Fold this protein.
Amino acid sequence: MRRSDKPQQPTSVGGGEKARLRDILFFPRSVAVIGQSNDPGKTAGRPLKFLRQAGFSGRVYPVNAQRGEVLGERAWPSVEALPEVPEHAYVVASIDSAMEAIKACGRAGVAVATVLTDGFAEVGEAGRAREARLREIVATTGMRMVGPSSLGIVNLRTGMLLTANAAFDEPNLPVGRIFAASHSGGMIGTLLSRGKACGIGFAGLVSVGNEVDLSLGEICDAVLDDPEIDGYLLFLETLRHADRLRAFAQRAATACKPVLAYKLGRSAQGRELAVTHTGALAGEDDVAGAFFRDCGIARVETLSALIEGLPLLGRVPAPQKTRNPCAAVVTTTAGGAAMVVDPLASRGVDVAAPSEATYGRLNAAGIKVSRSRLIDLTLAGARYEIMKATLDILTTAPEFDLIVVVVGSSARFYPELAVQPIIDSAGAGKPMAVFLVPEALQARAALGKAGVANFYTPEACADAVAAALTRRLPRLSSPSPLLPSGRLRPSSMGYRQGRGEGASPQAQTGGKAHSFATFVPSPLGGAGNRCGDLCLQASGAEGRGRTLDEFEGYALLDRLGIPCAPSTALDVNVTHAPALLFGYPVALKVLSSAITHKSDIGGVTLGIPDAPALVAAIAAMRTRLPQVGRVLVQPMIGGIGEVLIGYRHDPDIGPLVLVATGGIYTEIYRDRSLRLAPVDADTAHEMIAELQGLRLLTGYRGKPAGDIAAMAQAVAALSRLAAEPAVIEAEVNPLVVRAQGEGVVAVDAVVRVR
Amino acid sequence: MRRSDKPQQPTSVGGGEKARLRDILFFPRSVAVIGQSNDPGKTAGRPLKFLRQAGFSGRVYPVNAQRGEVLGERAWPSVEALPEVPEHAYVVASIDSAMEAIKACGRAGVAVATVLTDGFAEVGEAGRAREARLREIVATTGMRMVGPSSLGIVNLRTGMLLTANAAFDEPNLPVGRIFAASHSGGMIGTLLSRGKACGIGFAGLVSVGNEVDLSLGEICDAVLDDPEIDGYLLFLETLRHADRLRAFAQRAATACKPVLAYKLGRSAQGRELAVTHTGALAGEDDVAGAFFRDCGIARVETLSALIEGLPLLGRVPAPQKTRNPCAAVVTTTAGGAAMVVDPLASRGVDVAAPSEATYGRLNAAGIKVSRSRLIDLTLAGARYEIMKATLDILTTAPEFDLIVVVVGSSARFYPELAVQPIIDSAGAGKPMAVFLVPEALQARAALGKAGVANFYTPEACADAVAAALTRRLPRLSSPSPLLPSGRLRPSSMGYRQGRGEGASPQAQTGGKAHSFATFVPSPLGGAGNRCGDLCLQASGAEGRGRTLDEFEGYALLDRLGIPCAPSTALDVNVTHAPALLFGYPVALKVLSSAITHKSDIGGVTLGIPDAPALVAAIAAMRTRLPQVGRVLVQPMIGGIGEVLIGYRHDPDIGPLVLVATGGIYTEIYRDRSLRLAPVDADTAHEMIAELQGLRLLTGYRGKPAGDIAAMAQAVAALSRLAAEPAVIEAEVNPLVVRAQGEGVVAVDAVVRVR
């Protein structure tokens, strides 16, 4: 057995570790199929058949312990018996033989093993133990691994079809410039075959399986320098190894290679499946949305948009910041176009009428259209010169980011009328997305050939347009520490306790650095409502870490620069009221890190009018809750509304910040906005603008407007916890929002630290 | 010129007026194409070409005022010059000639004219005047009319292609058993061509245009007895002529012919287009939803589901009442199946795991599946006998309404593995819906041939499944008058005014017949919040009719059986407080039918503690609002929540009843449920269960539960206004909901009558 040394397959440009990974994954000079069956009807019989069908020019070694010949070719009994060490081994044997073969590959110095075999994490304890053994082999031998449960890895350009996916069983595979990666093995065949049907081709595809070694992000990253790859399609089940995915997405953005993703688990039922299926935990869908946005990955909701959307994405630059994306819709059939407008509108894309200037140009060109969101050429006539002149004007109109062209029945048999002018405008200023309303395969093929994005369904068209227009450039910088301490030491978080002297409540609430907090009752739903399944807390890893008490929590918020009103901690056995930093009426709360739902257990008393009443209230609480040692006194201060702000270090995707409308309805309507932390004030404003309930704080129906700027500052401040690895999660609920110019006040704080 | 008397086209069975209409529309013995052009590339050149291409065997008369020959055939100069009176004329001339020709058709005794020509309501005033003239011709001559702006009427079985739609320009049109009707002309070509691509064929298609005479519902109804038609596809832009559509849908349900509809205007932007495009007003989308549900029409959200869904609908019986629809999802590819589960869940279909009994049967058959919502055959193997045995068990499992089968890559080249068993189970107990994940045209064709509903996209599959499982049998009865008076006489609505003697407030609020009302302040958002664009009022025809004052409104509610607490009307100039039927504290409101937003103008004073304070408050209100003559006094009575209930006679679809969560958040989250009125208490309960915000009144997080039964009774009672043509709209906002067993109380009432 000798090392393979004569490259039969020229590798692409570039060197170093990543180029080496790319080459052994996608340009191996020799491959072994371990467990190759002699029955081409069986899954394990397919890889050799496919490799030969596709004309792979590298050396191929079938390995079969039982037979000296498979599918008419010589077979070897084991990896050790091969005449050379193959660069890439595809293991399709059953579980026990597979484990032995993988060990043998590692020993022999195989560069990468892709493992089809299943029987790992998805089957429970025994499977997880097998995965641990795989990791050990990788760690000790340096062999890299794709899978297990990988349905394959494919380079269509070289015919390297290391796959058992039945959809690859044909000679005319659609070679193109897209790379596809999927958590679900079956989907590589789906992307391939559906892509072929609509003229979309692939450079390579990979089913990443359980990702015990190489993750989806790493594999995508390995081929980033491949000059024959223009963009990426991702089919995701989880955000496992999100850090790798993010690093890849950032580099892809820099390389101007767009990334389009579909992720399962939009619904709770769907997420449950993801857990059952792969053993991986799927987070809530808007967490995934925040992640994609932050990474600059465009996300679609429909399968068709995933397959058909990349040509569009390649034409639409990702904006750094949102402005309302604005599309023109021009059509020869109003009803057909309206089918695209509805889902566009529901995905937040503004379908706008042309500007006065653009109307002027249309009129000057003799094109009769009525003033409407829809540029309807029905009356003008579905003729070449009409459509061409219209597109010439629209693709150079500054008010539009993108032109959606919807062509009616003529597209089927008379493409020269309204489809050809689109093709002839393909190089024009603004990107175009096309929906041909009737079945019109030939016209679609012609559009595809001209590089014009076109879609089979109105929903996919709208989906891809919205995904293209609403994605962002990824954030490239990682969060830098903002707190002077660098690392939070919760055990030493000092705070001063009020003793009656000092500033007035106003100064305390308006000022910057103070160590007190003010309790303000909720004007909408009573004090101390916890957020149930809405809040970050509930989805975090319960039970880990230590919860700070409310007072310690305020100290942390104070260091972040989030205004907290004054607050005094008292022993529950006091027999007279101390002089307070603030006036009556006051609120009384139990102070204990063990109690997070204070009001549910009678741990909150509001509106205490004077000192004797305070003493009585403390006594009553002592009787009611004998386990409690300390209480907190705060002034009653009202605002004009309240919000919930929160921070969590998500195990998959890292630091997250959240803002949600406050009060009990919030939980019911799940009205919240999420981003990866940290965020600046601009992004915080954007988050606030996404909340429907926050309309109540922006001067709704003559009500006073709240201090949105202060709210945004508080969100941004809380998000800076991203630089504090000690903090697992933090939640302010409520943050009381006062009138414009009067700031916000944190009125409760729950913080959990490692 | 003589009447055509020799039927060349055998008409289908049946007689009478409707059969006659069916025959002249779809089985004419002679047709004229008026304005037929000699240029087959022009729109007006197509009908003759298409008729000949399709081999129409009836007599065809091209009419062209300029030429004696068109497309190589003899042409006549006018309708009058024809050798016989054609049964059906298709008018494709330009507007002025068309108007003349239509007149001539009417005079000559043409049975039906279908008018392609545009230049009617969609172009404004002059166009509307032309439509009026068309109506006059119809009324005076008895000639029926389809259009104007009808892109055609087609009977594929006889080759009667009276259409100018470019997508009909081919010889092999897909003949089948579906009838399609569309407001949008282009869509008949879309349904035809896309249907053909997926094996769906049509008996006939019609573009109904502006519906000046024959409406979409009437045309569908005319072919209901056609034994070669199995079901209907509707593409709707508005609910114009909803009464006709409803009558048709009711008869279609009786005839077991399913009706599947797609309606534009889900978004506000989309509705705006509908207005611009056809001149018709489009109502809000949930109003349309209530209408479809009431009529038993299944509604889909995607174009593909419209085209592919009817074979499924034909297999799924419409339930009379909801139970949670429950689907099994069985698959050979978990990732592919999860793409269907997500949109199913978001459309309210429960994807359930098999019962213990069903698991037992699967185990007994040797089929290994893990316990999950997804019946995943990956481990068991995608083989014929596995899939067949699984389907045998699932299609006879009582817990499922429907089986969704999702087949992975094998479907493309190995349909014998997992697709053939579906075909072999096609006649089984439960209906099946199939999604083939890869591109698999041949397998789809085989499924289609076997009558198994299958879908190109996962979204369309879920959409059609949800539409099939959530539709209802139509309500066949029309509302009967429930008020003894039969017709409301608002001018004589008497009420007694309290004078201090009589029952206690409790008796008044709990009792049945009383003429007073109690004002209760909103605990969540202040009293008297109006509902803005949420309420029925705003969407009604403002300005018509007379608004009752609040006192008269209570009298109406009282007659309907909706509890109203006591209330006393006073002259604003009183100088001493009268003895009240109820105790202090009280609320004071202005009483004027001219003022609907009382609290906005300072017309409400709450919590008045005693008689002197009441006199002072009245005096203050007199000063503040000098235009007001009377005030209303009511006790302060709180509840545990509030809702809005409303009734409106919608100009399109008739009486509607609504329930929405109360308070200011309601308006922001638009949390409401609508039905056609009247509804019974069961339906009212169903409506209440649809409101997210109402969770607050059903014992949410330990809060007291509200009197849901009383709320449902009030909704049902208000809905009985459907029998009162005098009432245009009525709204109770808020209806205070008290604790379980304590009832509800109407606390404000706005009623508008003719």
